[in-house]
Protein backbone atom coordinates (compact mmCIF):
# COMPACT_ATOMS: atom_id res chain seq x y z
CA UNK A 1 0.00 0.00 0.00
CA UNK A 2 1.25 3.49 -0.85
CA UNK A 3 2.01 5.67 2.13
CA UNK A 4 -0.05 8.80 1.48
CA UNK A 5 0.15 11.91 3.61
CA UNK A 6 -2.78 12.66 5.91
CA UNK A 7 -4.52 15.91 4.95
CA UNK A 8 -7.04 17.99 6.92
CA UNK A 9 -8.77 21.11 5.62
CA UNK A 10 -10.77 23.53 7.77
CA UNK A 11 -13.53 25.26 5.82
CA UNK A 12 -14.79 28.19 7.86
CA UNK A 13 -17.44 29.02 5.24
CA UNK A 14 -19.09 32.42 5.83
CA UNK A 15 -18.41 32.32 9.57
CA UNK A 16 -16.22 34.20 11.95
CA UNK A 17 -15.22 37.73 12.74
CA UNK A 18 -11.88 39.52 12.99
CA UNK A 19 -11.53 38.69 16.65
CA UNK A 20 -12.64 35.07 16.20
CA UNK A 21 -10.26 34.21 13.40
CA UNK A 22 -7.38 35.79 15.30
CA UNK A 23 -7.98 33.61 18.33
CA UNK A 24 -8.58 30.48 16.20
CA UNK A 25 -5.31 30.96 14.35
CA UNK A 26 -3.36 31.77 17.48
CA UNK A 27 -4.79 28.65 19.13
CA UNK A 28 -3.72 26.55 16.15
CA UNK A 29 -0.26 28.11 16.21
CA UNK A 30 0.08 26.96 19.80
CA UNK A 31 -1.53 23.52 19.41
CA UNK A 32 0.36 20.23 19.20
CA UNK A 33 -0.48 19.19 15.65
CA UNK A 34 0.65 15.90 14.15
CA UNK A 35 3.62 16.99 12.00
CA UNK A 36 2.68 14.31 9.48
CA UNK A 37 -0.72 15.89 8.78
CA UNK A 38 -0.89 18.60 6.14
CA UNK A 39 -3.35 21.25 7.32
CA UNK A 40 -5.06 23.94 5.23
CA UNK A 41 -7.41 26.55 6.70
CA UNK A 42 -9.91 28.37 4.48
CA UNK A 43 -11.36 31.48 6.11
CA UNK A 44 -13.65 33.87 4.20
CA UNK A 45 -11.64 35.68 1.49
CA UNK A 46 -11.80 38.94 3.42
CA UNK A 47 -9.70 37.42 6.19
CA UNK A 48 -7.06 35.62 4.12
CA UNK A 49 -4.39 38.31 4.10
CA UNK A 50 -4.63 39.29 7.76
CA UNK A 51 -4.65 35.56 8.59
CA UNK A 52 -1.46 35.15 6.57
CA UNK A 53 0.22 37.73 8.79
CA UNK A 54 -0.53 35.54 11.81
CA UNK A 55 1.19 32.43 10.45
CA UNK A 56 4.31 31.58 12.41
CA UNK A 57 7.68 31.05 10.80
CA UNK A 58 7.58 27.26 11.09
CA UNK A 59 4.15 27.24 9.48
CA UNK A 60 2.02 24.44 10.88
CA UNK A 61 -0.65 25.04 8.27
CA UNK A 62 -1.33 26.80 4.99
CA UNK A 63 -4.19 29.02 3.89
CA UNK A 64 -6.74 28.47 1.16
CA UNK A 65 -9.64 30.34 -0.40
CA UNK A 66 -13.12 28.82 -0.52
CA UNK A 67 -13.58 29.51 -4.24
CA UNK A 68 -11.95 31.38 -7.12
CA UNK A 69 -13.27 32.50 -10.48
CA UNK A 70 -11.46 31.32 -13.60
CA UNK A 71 -11.05 34.62 -15.46
CA UNK A 72 -7.87 36.37 -14.32
CA UNK A 73 -9.45 39.84 -14.01
CA UNK A 74 -12.25 41.98 -15.36
CA UNK A 75 -15.85 43.03 -14.80
CA UNK A 76 -16.97 40.18 -12.51
CA UNK A 77 -18.39 41.98 -9.50
CA UNK A 78 -17.96 40.15 -6.24
CA UNK A 79 -15.50 37.54 -7.50
CA UNK A 80 -11.83 36.94 -6.81
CA UNK A 81 -9.60 35.09 -9.27
CA UNK A 82 -6.98 32.39 -9.00
CA UNK A 83 -4.49 34.88 -10.44
CA UNK A 84 -5.25 37.23 -7.54
CA UNK A 85 -4.83 34.43 -5.00
CA UNK A 86 -1.45 33.66 -6.51
CA UNK A 87 -0.54 37.35 -6.36
CA UNK A 88 -1.52 37.47 -2.69
CA UNK A 89 0.52 34.35 -1.86
CA UNK A 90 -2.46 32.14 -0.99
CA UNK A 91 -1.46 28.63 -2.10
CA UNK A 92 -4.72 26.64 -1.87
CA UNK A 93 -8.30 26.89 -3.09
CA UNK A 94 -11.41 24.78 -2.45
CA UNK A 95 -13.41 24.24 -5.67
CA UNK A 96 -16.75 22.62 -6.42
CA UNK A 97 -18.01 22.64 -2.84
CA UNK A 98 -21.60 21.41 -2.79
CA UNK A 99 -22.78 24.75 -1.38
CA UNK A 100 -21.31 26.39 -4.49
CA UNK A 101 -22.88 23.76 -6.72
CA UNK A 102 -26.35 23.88 -5.16
CA UNK A 103 -26.86 27.41 -3.78
CA UNK A 104 -24.82 29.26 -6.41
CA UNK A 105 -25.70 26.89 -9.26
CA UNK A 106 -22.15 26.06 -10.32
CA UNK A 107 -22.04 23.47 -13.07
CA UNK A 108 -19.47 20.74 -13.65
CA UNK A 109 -18.17 22.97 -16.46
CA UNK A 110 -17.69 25.92 -14.09
CA UNK A 111 -15.79 23.68 -11.68
CA UNK A 112 -13.62 22.36 -14.52
CA UNK A 113 -12.82 25.90 -15.70
CA UNK A 114 -11.97 27.01 -12.18
CA UNK A 115 -9.78 23.96 -11.62
CA UNK A 116 -7.87 24.62 -14.83
CA UNK A 117 -7.29 28.28 -13.94
CA UNK A 118 -6.21 27.46 -10.39
CA UNK A 119 -3.65 24.89 -11.55
CA UNK A 120 -2.37 27.19 -14.30
CA UNK A 121 -1.73 29.76 -11.58
CA UNK A 122 0.24 27.28 -9.54
CA UNK A 123 -2.41 26.89 -6.82
CA UNK A 124 -3.21 23.57 -5.17
CA UNK A 125 -6.86 22.51 -5.31
CA UNK A 126 -9.23 20.75 -2.93
CA UNK A 127 -11.75 19.45 -5.46
CA UNK A 128 -15.11 18.55 -3.89
CA UNK A 129 -17.53 15.92 -5.15
CA UNK A 130 -20.53 14.25 -3.57
CA UNK A 131 -24.05 12.96 -4.08
CA UNK A 132 -27.37 14.22 -2.70
CA UNK A 133 -29.60 12.10 -0.47
CA UNK A 134 -31.94 11.45 -3.38
CA UNK A 135 -29.05 10.21 -5.54
CA UNK A 136 -27.79 7.96 -2.70
CA UNK A 137 -31.25 6.48 -2.18
CA UNK A 138 -31.44 5.67 -5.88
CA UNK A 139 -28.10 3.81 -5.57
CA UNK A 140 -26.32 6.38 -7.76
CA UNK A 141 -23.66 7.65 -5.32
CA UNK A 142 -20.63 6.25 -7.11
CA UNK A 143 -21.97 7.12 -10.56
CA UNK A 144 -22.55 10.76 -9.52
CA UNK A 145 -19.19 11.15 -7.81
CA UNK A 146 -17.22 9.63 -10.70
CA UNK A 147 -19.21 11.76 -13.16
CA UNK A 148 -18.21 14.92 -11.26
CA UNK A 149 -14.60 13.77 -11.21
CA UNK A 150 -14.58 12.94 -14.89
CA UNK A 151 -15.91 16.40 -15.70
CA UNK A 152 -12.98 18.04 -13.90
CA UNK A 153 -10.29 15.52 -14.88
CA UNK A 154 -9.64 16.90 -18.35
CA UNK A 155 -8.62 20.20 -16.69
CA UNK A 156 -6.03 18.51 -14.49
CA UNK A 157 -2.52 17.99 -15.79
CA UNK A 158 -0.76 17.79 -12.44
CA UNK A 159 -2.47 15.50 -9.93
CA UNK A 160 0.19 16.20 -7.31
CA UNK A 161 -1.53 19.57 -6.80
CA UNK A 162 -4.99 18.08 -6.26
CA UNK A 163 -6.73 16.67 -3.20
CA UNK A 164 -10.16 15.12 -3.79
CA UNK A 165 -12.78 15.71 -1.09
CA UNK A 166 -15.69 13.27 -1.05
CA UNK A 167 -18.49 15.15 0.67
CA UNK A 168 -21.93 13.54 0.55
CA UNK A 169 -24.34 16.49 0.46
CA UNK A 170 -26.66 14.81 2.98
CA UNK A 171 -23.86 14.69 5.55
CA UNK A 172 -22.73 18.31 5.32
CA UNK A 173 -23.70 20.40 8.32
CA UNK A 174 -26.42 17.91 9.25
CA UNK A 175 -24.69 16.01 12.04
CA UNK A 176 -25.40 12.89 9.95
CA UNK A 177 -21.94 11.50 9.23
CA UNK A 178 -21.45 8.74 6.67
CA UNK A 179 -20.50 5.47 8.32
CA UNK A 180 -16.89 4.43 7.88
CA UNK A 181 -18.12 1.68 5.51
CA UNK A 182 -20.24 4.05 3.41
CA UNK A 183 -17.36 6.50 3.07
CA UNK A 184 -14.76 3.80 2.41
CA UNK A 185 -16.89 2.31 -0.38
CA UNK A 186 -16.90 5.61 -2.30
CA UNK A 187 -13.27 6.40 -1.50
CA UNK A 188 -12.25 2.99 -2.84
CA UNK A 189 -14.25 3.65 -6.03
CA UNK A 190 -12.49 7.02 -6.41
CA UNK A 191 -9.09 5.37 -5.87
CA UNK A 192 -9.86 2.68 -8.46
CA UNK A 193 -11.02 5.35 -10.89
CA UNK A 194 -7.82 7.35 -10.34
CA UNK A 195 -5.59 4.33 -10.90
CA UNK A 196 -7.51 3.40 -14.06
CA UNK A 197 -7.67 6.96 -15.42
CA UNK A 198 -4.34 8.54 -14.52
CA UNK A 199 -2.24 5.44 -13.89
CA UNK A 200 -1.17 3.48 -10.85
CA UNK A 201 1.80 5.53 -9.77
CA UNK A 202 0.09 8.93 -9.90
CA UNK A 203 -3.38 7.69 -8.93
CA UNK A 204 -2.20 6.00 -5.75
CA UNK A 205 -0.59 9.18 -4.48
CA UNK A 206 -3.63 11.49 -4.68
CA UNK A 207 -5.16 12.19 -1.27
CA UNK A 208 -8.88 11.42 -1.08
CA UNK A 209 -10.41 13.04 1.99
CA UNK A 210 -13.88 12.81 3.52
CA UNK A 211 -16.14 15.71 4.53
CA UNK A 212 -19.55 15.86 6.18
CA UNK A 213 -20.15 16.22 9.93
CA UNK A 214 -16.64 15.11 10.89
CA UNK A 215 -15.91 15.83 14.56
CA UNK A 216 -13.41 15.02 17.26
CA UNK A 217 -15.30 11.83 18.12
CA UNK A 218 -15.87 10.19 14.76
CA UNK A 219 -12.58 11.18 13.08
CA UNK A 220 -10.49 8.29 14.39
CA UNK A 221 -12.72 5.53 13.07
CA UNK A 222 -13.07 7.18 9.67
CA UNK A 223 -9.30 7.78 9.54
CA UNK A 224 -8.64 4.08 10.12
CA UNK A 225 -10.14 3.19 6.72
CA UNK A 226 -7.50 2.34 4.10
CA UNK A 227 -8.74 4.81 1.48
CA UNK A 228 -9.62 7.77 3.75
CA UNK A 229 -6.61 10.07 3.72
CA UNK A 230 -7.98 12.90 5.83
CA UNK A 231 -10.91 15.29 6.14
CA UNK A 232 -12.51 18.50 5.00
CA UNK A 233 -14.13 19.93 8.11
CA UNK A 234 -16.79 22.65 8.34
CA UNK A 235 -18.47 23.25 11.69
CA UNK A 236 -15.88 21.49 13.84
CA UNK A 237 -13.03 23.49 12.28
CA UNK A 238 -14.24 26.46 14.34
CA UNK A 239 -13.97 24.51 17.59
CA UNK A 240 -11.08 23.24 19.74
CA UNK A 241 -11.87 19.66 18.62
CA UNK A 242 -10.35 20.52 15.22
CA UNK A 243 -6.99 19.65 16.79
CA UNK A 244 -8.26 16.13 17.55
CA UNK A 245 -9.31 15.75 13.91
CA UNK A 246 -5.86 16.86 12.68
CA UNK A 247 -4.37 14.33 15.11
CA UNK A 248 -6.77 11.50 14.22
CA UNK A 249 -3.94 9.25 13.06
CA UNK A 250 -1.85 9.64 16.23
P1 LIG B 1 -19.46 20.09 8.05
O1 LIG B 1 -19.05 20.70 6.61
O2 LIG B 1 -18.20 19.54 8.64
O3 LIG B 1 -19.99 21.28 8.82
O4 LIG B 1 -20.49 19.05 7.80
C1 LIG B 1 -18.14 20.05 5.80
C2 LIG B 1 -17.89 20.86 4.55
O5 LIG B 1 -18.83 21.48 4.03
O6 LIG B 1 -16.77 20.89 4.03
UniProtKB/TrEMBL annotation:
One MF term in the entry's GO annotations:
triose-phosphate isomerase activity
Gene Ontology CC annotation, any one: cytosol
- Which pathway or pathways does this protein act in? Carbohydrate degradation; glycolysis; D-glyceraldehyde 3-phosphate from glycerone phosphate: step 1/1; Carbohydrate biosynthesis; gluconeogenesis
Spell out the reaction equation it catalyses.
D-glyceraldehyde 3-phosphate = dihydroxyacetone phosphate
Cross-referenced SUPFAM superfamilies, in alphabetical order? Triosephosphate isomerase (TIM)
Q: Which PANTHER family match?
A: TRIOSEPHOSPHATE ISOMERASE
Q: Which family does it belong to?
A: Belongs to the triosephosphate isomerase family.
Q: What is this protein called?
A: Triosephosphate isomerase
Its taxonomic placement starts with:
Eukaryota, Fungi, Dikarya, Basidiomycota, Ustilaginomycotina
Primary gene name: TPI1
Amino acid sequence: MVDRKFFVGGNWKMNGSLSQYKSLINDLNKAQLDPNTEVVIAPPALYLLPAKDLLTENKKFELGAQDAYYKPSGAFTGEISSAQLKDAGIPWVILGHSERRTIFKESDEDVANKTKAALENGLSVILCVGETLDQREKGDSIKVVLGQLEAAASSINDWSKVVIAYEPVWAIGTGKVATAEQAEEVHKAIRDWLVKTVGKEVGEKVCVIYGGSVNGKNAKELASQPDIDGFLVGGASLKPEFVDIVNARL
